[in-house]
Batch of 3 targets.
Target 1
Amino acid sequence: MNAKYFICFAFGLGLYFQGFAANKYSSESLEFLCPTFNPDFINKSKNGVLHHEKSWFSRKINFVAGPSFAGNYNLNIPENASIETILDTIQATDPDGDALIYSIQAGNTNTTFLLDSVSGTLKISKKLNYHTQSQYSLIVKVTDATGLFSETSVDIKVELLNAVPLQSSFIWETAASQPYVVNEAQGETVNNKLYNFGGFDSQKSGFTPTSRAYVYDPNLNKWTALAPLPPMNGTKYGGVTHTGITTDGTDIYFAGGYTSNLAGTGQIFGTKEVWKYIVAENRYERLLDLPIVVAAGQLEYVNGWLHHIGGTNQARTVDLNNHYALNLDDQSAGWKLLAPLPNPRQHAGSAVYEGKIYYIGGQTGHDKNLITQKKVHAYDPVTNQWTEKADLQVPAGSSGRGHISSAVLVAGNQILVLAGETVHSSGQSNLVSAYNPNTNTWGNLAPLPKARFSGVAALLNNCIYYSGGSRTNITFKSSPVLPPTQSLIQNLKSNTGGVYSFGELVVGTTIYTDQTYQIKSLPDDLNHSLFIKTPDKDKSLSEQEVFSFDITKGSTLYIAYDSKATVLPAWLNEWQKLPDTISTTNPIDDTYQLYSKSFPAGKVILSGNMATPAAGVNSNYYVIIVPNNTTGVQPEWKKEKSIVKLFPNPSSTGGKIKMFVSGLTPKMLLTITMQDMVGRRVYTQQVKTNQEGIINAELTPFPQLSKGLYLVTINFPLSKVQAKLLIE
């Protein structure tokens, strides 16, 4: 049978293709005459012979497929990527050239991403946090003008930053005090600022929650008033204490707590109310109430859900282990009851680390009957199970630490717990305890200058802050707590919308934010340096200002540039070409030539990879930052039993230099580098010790050095020694 007539006949019988049901085809192109059959044709006869009657209708059918995607998307995004950062452009094609509309159908937890319906541009709309959600799986739909559509998946992985140990030794000082003495307040950090809400009103007698709220900016060292807390519990007074508080990185949520009474002269011991503080608008929004009246519980945000855990009842007679969770993307479903806390308690602390909620310390009972706790439990939302962890560090003779609800934070690869109450009215602690979830171990860092409880803690600009508590308004501030290189760079900004992020320069690390190419080898003296990952897709940019950042101290910057370049951009001609390279797994250009230049502390602006007159470049560059440190080095230096000598020293331009090193491991491979006093590397050589652990060698081939002072570094497997060389 002719295919055309078969199709018509199939339609006449009421058949259809799956493609029509799936919206892959429309009915607006091809026109056929197709038969229809009278439903009672079997009852009709002519001259005793059964027959059917038919009529004909016109049907247009389009067998051209609708829009389609070339494939799925896989993106890696650093957790410090700013809001409005463009992640990628999701694009589909349509054979008819119809206008296309893009939309996110699923997986967009808490509206973290925005997709432009016309261009397909995907942006970040809320701050990312590796610990609260490390992966997103979006389903994106494209629809053409006729209603035909297709879908693709966009898998996004959030990259963790600063997962490093803290410095155990740091110094405490004071920062700006809060405007009023405050106790039992609650706080959270958003956009590197500390938001502080409520607490007991020091301007009133007794225990009355205050509606005052403030934000602290560490860059200005200043507290600024926020909109007052809204009236709660059917009163005309705002204010809350003992509330659970958390953030999704963009806005702040609080649930339960003690509120002001009807007269504004005391407190009500509990509420069901849940609120959201919208940071960008400085206003509060009521959310769905908790199932029970509660106070002194903990609230945490994980994967788009609010988790309220523990606390005490309104009569303050029962320690609770209730665990409720609310899906912020489907609040109409209500609060869901999850696995209860194994050890009922309140006035605890909590934090989210790598997707798990850690519930720390706390107390049972109240006032003179309270007993502080040191138990630690971790909740896994994937399995809905709790696991007991190593006990919290407590002062000698104490049973635990409570009143730490806003004094727990994540810093580096640890969870910090600051201060806390040990005994009602008479026992406070100044401990700063650090928990490593990966090893399930505790340690103590530099203690606070004074014992405190019920204060608010934050990590701002790489420094720990602890403010208020113990009926004070004092703010303590630590010196930087992460390794120096982690605080060397600030205000990294892209002018192109591309993703730029920090990394540690080691073998195996990726060099771009949008590719998986890894480092295979690099110079020893740059190993473990801080570097800026760039997007390879920005390789064609020629603008004068592509991205910028601030360095907090004088540093030497290294540009790793495509070694196949035939012409350098004009801006890179001002940098010194070095004898060293970095090799990678990039199949197009596996080798990157290094160029160096010294910069003082301040703003650094870098230009495009293809700025005039660059040519022959196939891959984008990336940047390595090494802080300058050339003080305190002696011409002769001892390292345990090792002795290093350079001779002749001083030497002359063009002269030969010999090196003597003793007291080393036999047959050990060493790397020797030489830098001028602004940090530019001018020489590299590898040598091996003899059977006696001695090096007695001439440095060859040696460059023609200008007059001046040079720093020679001998890199050992686990350390290094240095000496100065004077060229006269």
Note: The longest strand covers residues 26-37.
Target 2
Amino acid sequence: MVKRIKLRTLFIGGCITLFFLVLIARVFWIQVVEGSDWQEKAATLWAHTSTIKAERGTISDRNGSVLASDVPAYTVVVNPAVIAEKGIGDEVVKGLHELLGKPEDELRKLIEAKDENGKYLKNREVRNEGWKIDQELADKVKEFYVALGKEHKIQETGIGLVREQKRYYPKGSLAAHILGYTDRDGKAIMGLEKSLDEQLKGSDGKLLYQSDGQGVKLPDSKDTYKPVVNGSNFKLTIDSTIQKYIQEAMEKAYAQYKPKSMSVIAADPNTMEILGMANMPTFNPNEFWKTGAEGAGFYNHAIKSTYEPGSTFKIVTLAAAVEEKLFDPVATFLSGSIRIKGYSKALHDINRSGWGQISFLEGVKRSSNVLFVKLYEMLGQDRLLQYIDDFGFNEKTGIDLPGEAKGFVNPNLNRPIEIATLAYGHGVIGVTPLQQLVAVSAIANGGKLMTPYVVKEVTDPNTGDTKVTQPSVVRQVIDEASAKKTGEYLEQVVADQVKGTGRNAHIEGYRVAGKTGTAIKVEGKDYVKSKVLVSFIGYAPVNDPKIAVIVIIDEPNVEVGGGKAAAPVFKEIVSQSLQYMGVPKLATETSDKDSKKTVKTDAPALRTTPDLTGKTMKEARETLLDQGFDFEVVGEGASVETQYPEAGTKLVQGQRIYLLSKQGDKPTIPKLQGESLRDALEVLTLLKVEIAVEGEGYVSEQIEGTKNGKTLVTLKMKPLNDNSEDVPASSSADEGTESESGP
């Protein structure tokens, strides 16, 4: 018995000993042999990561007005299980349909969604109508489900809101093609949002810490912190007010002419800061999905599309001729047509019969193709092509916007006809609107080709450091004196209210230089006269340029030229912008008798005639060009004997000054078309000729003859034209646009 007890005790003791040995071995195995593995698994269970979301940088205009920023957004979610349990499906469908506009059948499918086992799902987002909605709509959704809960006396209705962030553009479509947009997932799609995405989005921060099974942070937690880096903030050169002027003017023209597209760019010609840029059709980045699958509204024609520019390109040829001292404003040529050696067809002006023997300056005013072909012949092929290159037409401008096109000027050097047509903007040439604006800005700023830009400042919110973009000069294309002269000639295109093709761009109180263009478009290898691209490019004020603007209208639905369609758009934008910028109008000097001082007062419509009598004709011409007056020389004498209006006369808009020199046996009769009867009679009286008048209004035609051995001038009068402009109704020879014939 005792022996049996001892054996049992030994057995039990052995088992216990063996158990402890196994336990010790297991503990040793776990803690020593597999200790590192278990340590890693434990660390994984203890470790928690908290992400700190980086804030995407804001984009603002030059005055700090926000154009793009992150704002709170809310996504509507539904719980099919709760909705089914409460039996409120019909009310949920009806209410969300009315608030979000989502079709009822799609909502019903959403709230009745089940898994593969036939059980109702718990949380479903209402996309896309309820995805990242704004605060106002979110408040309405909340009011709805709170009221639904009270009506049914339930706490949970199965409807909720999840707070998120979204990109918001407070000014809607304003500057949309510059800004671009991000989609609902926050992915940058186009514009600055895409090209600056890395700098805008920043990088998320992270906090790594250790906690127990309940999620409570351990006292000896080893924390790791990666700081958040918020995105940089960008201030643009864009002025929201000028951008608004641009888009409002474009909307009117777009509605009137229903073109394929429109583009407008405005810049400060002294720095090439882009003040505004817009295209039609356009889009609202807050509702980008409404633009349509074809995506026409997303295309930034201002920097991506290339066109045959037409007459606006004549500015380059003119500037080259002025720089080379080849342009004499009083030299004459026979307008109408011109032939190029080796080419069977003649090149024509829009008025194929021409205007007779006219001066070079009148050729600029009338946008004569023949004149610019003659200037090409004077310059020669190599010099013209070199100036085209120097003005930047075979390279990108370098603007800090994505997708800029290079353009091309690629004539066959063995075909002089292709170089000749380049002189007036037709042929083997394709330029962007921005390239043209950069070129004309070089005329405005004294001959400097500059790099355009839209990013004015970049601020790092994490450090407070700000980087400011400085204006950059690419090269000096022409000297300052040549640029000034070229600008004065371009001013005559606008100032001459009879001959100037740009007269509709005239702005009361400001000196405006500009050039119209109407390019017939090519389809295949042929020019199609029914499809044109009309444009106007210019700057103001000529004496101290503050803004340069180009207007492009592609395929208007009626026959119209750049002078009639694009120039008024330019006028509306620039006149508003100059006043907004505080640029003073032209002032006249008046005498203050009490203080015996000369006081300058704004008198935009009443500039006074300078005293030119006794000056040489050359001095008089230079004075009038420098001050931007429209004038005509009568006679071939070397000095001014009389002038009309006389010195000190206050001039109304578009009134011309006549410089009369010594007359021969037969007096030289100036062209009086467009003049009032009073002005025409005054000039003819000074010339001591007989006068006959037919009709009323303004001079539309003049006929020279003789009566009793004296010169007789018959004036035929007509009322103002249909546009109510202070110019006569067009005669049949001049009707239509100033569009140019293709080769």
Note: Residues 240-580 form a domain with the Beta-lactamase fold (CATH 3.40.710.10).
Target 3
Amino acid sequence: MELSKHYEPKEAEKKWQAYWEKQGIYRFDPKSKKEPFSCDTPPPTVSGKMHIGHAMAYSQADYVMRFQRMLGKNIFYPFGFDDNGLATERFVEKKCNIRARDIPRPEFIKICLNETKEAEKELKKDWSSLGISPDWSINYRTIDEWCRKTSQRSFLDLYRKGREYRKEAPTIWCPKCQTAIAQVELEDKEETSFFNHILFGLENSDKKLEIATTRPELLPSCVAVFVNPDDKRYKGLIGKNAVVPLFDYKVPIKRDKRADPEKGTGIVMCCTFGDLVDIEWWSAYNLPLKISITIDGVMNGLAGKYKGLKINDARKEIIEDLKSNNFMVKQEQITHTLNVHERCGTEVEFLVTKQWFLKYLDIKDKLLEAGNKLNWYPKHMKVRYDNWVNGLQWDWCLSRQRFYGVPIPVWYCEKCDEVILAKEENLPVDPTTDKPPVNKCPKCGCDKLIPEKDVFDTWATSSLSPMIATKWKEDDKFFNKMIPMSLRSNGHDIITFWLFNTVVKMLLHEDKLPWKDVMINGHALDPKGKKMSKSKGNIVEPKVVLEKHGSDAMRFWAASAKLGSDIPYQEKELVSGKKMMTKMWNASKFAIMNLKGYNPKKTKLEIIDKWIFSKLNKLIKACTDSFLEYDFSRTKSETERFFWQQFCDNYLEIVKDRLYNSADYSKEAVDSAHYTLYNTTLAILKLMAPILPHITEEIYHLYFAEIEGLKSIHVSDWPKYQKGLADEKAELAGDNAVSIISAVRKFKSEKNLSLNKPIKTLIIKCDEKTKKDLNSVLKDIKKTVKAEEIVFGDKAEIECQEDIKLGIEM
């Protein structure tokens, strides 16, 4: 290749991305005898677009995979797209200006499949532009036939194991999306509200009970009143009946420790349902069920005159009526935390609906034990997993009342409600369009079988990603070889979603861990360290960044984040990345031009060459150890520091004279320079290859690829630590030489002299031991500082370091 004056990242990055795919550089070889290393990465949603956080997270996982590939591992790195569920449904409705409920379900599903397929083509381009290295031939869509089959197979397996059940029960419900949701899909939202202090009546008494509530619209659903048994104020009320204002019916007054004497007035109304405690009381005390809110978030007939009003409108009218009837004592403004649906931000309700659940509350100890067996990077992220498991209060609600998703593969007997499972050999099935596997109910003989219309929670499928990728139940030999996978990489925000649910599924199906290691990345923040959001207008678009700076510069920024830490997007870090690439290009060009015709072979080394090799060897060990602990940021910072300070600023300047004026040196000294220049340049390229894959590939193909006989730097060997190259004596001599050279440079700069300005005499004042060490590098010092002679003496006042002073005569 011709040595261009400048490196053009835009052209080079597109060229090498196309080359890698065409040459199959990142293909997994199922027949290889090499040790496999596998990664399970989150399938991005088709409904969204790539944001800067994605770019950071996927780049960080890719550093690790590229490093492991260079260690000689057989890399299994599949890539999926999540095109299943509510988010996709909303995306298609908005894009096509349609509503799922207004058209036949099969037609809507067909539109979704077409739209997501088109969206995935663009998304693949976006993700490829990051320079990540998955095997694009091993890909999946969470709605494709194989994923639907695996998801439905999972359901059948867990049903037979007694882990899944269907029942009418209190369910977390989103009125806007009109579907049941799981506990993991809740978000906390701070909101200003009012404690409404309301007067309840007391049966057969003129006495009034003051009860504070934020949800007066639930008065028609009130089924009991609770007080704390230790609250002396209300001991005389226990066992009596309270009268609900406006609705004028009686409810029992009961005692329970969960009634907080410090909250409100200490008397709590229990409604079906306002929160989780209401559900616990309803279940524990066998209270009646009074549901006054419909699935679409309006008041029903139980609410009397408020029937048909939306929840917030009903709240306003009930408050006005409480005031006008003298039932309102006061309103106290508060800030409290609401549970909202993470998809749409709507406050959730608790309704009684018939749903499918996965039972796992009984295996919390086993789930905690699984968390202990995983290797967490960083370690403190395990706390989030533990807290989530310990805080679980609900079994996993698997069913969703949506149009688009993986169908639940069952039918029901119209007469006795018997569950009829699909046959495994028929999977995937859609009960709304496919015939049931039997003609009549095996239990009662009824021939009317009703299809299940609900679909699975999207996480019920996404949680199977390791099983989807490793051909679970399809190729047992391959599955057992690959599970547990080597690594799961995901953000700290989905530890409780994707990571936890995957652990659940793998444990319940196979009693195994899904992976050995877990690598948790942080979030990308705006330049001021604030969370990015559309409403704040502080979103950083990766496409804009890539267009302006290129992929390698962005990857350089992403590598500056310590694993697990949130990192602000800093333009200056990308500029630093571009400077690094420019310097790498120029330094490598210098090396290649001076290595023309060189055939690498071992030779006796000069002391200054031993010095740089010893430093490089320590760097290789530090980088290798760091990468094995997923500490890519240390690899980046240490290599960057070595490259600028040791290699460019010092070694290249010192070695120039041996390269330019080779006739003044022995053949061994020149061979030593060539050998060292070749190996240090190549090692630096390889150390930076996982982080800056494009420029390192470009430079590698200028010269090194032909010598190593390889198609890519990314399938070359990672530099190896060699104990024999550690040379403390050479390091001391080299460090002293560098210290003297730096002091002379500083002197010339302060005097506004050119660095090439000759020095008549350089005087070095030091002890005998240092003098002896320096003798081996005197020629290097002399040529680098342009000194006509170097002498040892006492006429030296310039501070160099503690044991060395200099005198300079021009």
Note: The chain has 23 helices and 29 strands.
